[in-house]
Amino acid sequence: MKRKIHQWTLVLAFAALFASACTTPLTTREQGGLIGAGLGAGSGAIIGSTVGSAAAGALIGGPVGLVAGALIGDQLMGQEARQNEQQRHIDRNETEIERLRRENQRLREERAR
Q1: DSSP at 1
Q2: DSSP 8-state secondary structure symbol assigned to residue 24
Q3: Is residue 18 part of a domain?
Q4: What letter does residue 23 receive in the DSSP assignment?
Q5: Are the C-beta atoms of residues 36 and 69 closer than 8 Å to each other?
Q6: Domain of 51?
Q7: Quick count: other Cβ atoms within 10 Å of Cβ 37?
């Protein structure tokens, strides 16, 4: 039992080291995949240990969690992209509104003369 815990500690330490070695920031999809893989492997190990094979459970749960996490991360990235596009539209509209206000003010001042 202690040997299995020791092995999992090494696996998690290696995964953390691997994740921190990335030169560019992780995308939301990659973050979701890593979190999902960790949760899937952990859950699989727990479930597998109740039936007698924690390693098999982790080997099954890890990839399942990776795919699920990546899919969730991909959806979040799509939502972020839509929100960014909406913000760009809002910013353009606000700029146009301000331009029209200034033009309206200029025309009023001309009419008043």
Answers
A1: -
A2: S
A3: no
A4: S
A5: yes
A6: 27-112
A7: 21
With respect to residue 87, please indicate whether it lies within any of the assigned structural domains.
yes
- pLDDT grade, residue 3 (50/70/90)? low
How many C-beta atoms surround the C-beta of residue 5 within 10 A? 10
Tell me the per-residue pLDDT of 10-58, one tens digit each, with 9 for 90 and over.
676 667 666 666 567 888 888 888 888 888 888 888 888 888 888 888 8
Q: Looking at the 3D structure of the chain, how many domains does it have?
A: 1
For the chain, the maximum distance between any two Cα atoms, rounded to a whole number of angstroms, is 91
In this predicted model, what pLDDT tens digit does every residue of 69-112 receive, in sequence order? Answer: 889 989 999 999 999 999 999 999 999 999 999 999 999 999 98
53: helix, strand or coil: coil
Token pair for 98: 């301000």
70 assigned to some structural domain: yes
Residue 17 backbone phi and psi in degrees, to 5: -65, -45
From the number of C-beta atoms within 10 Å of its C-beta (0-12, 13-18, 19+), residue 34 rates as buried
Written as one letter, the residue type at 55 is: A
The reply to whether 6 falls in a domain is no
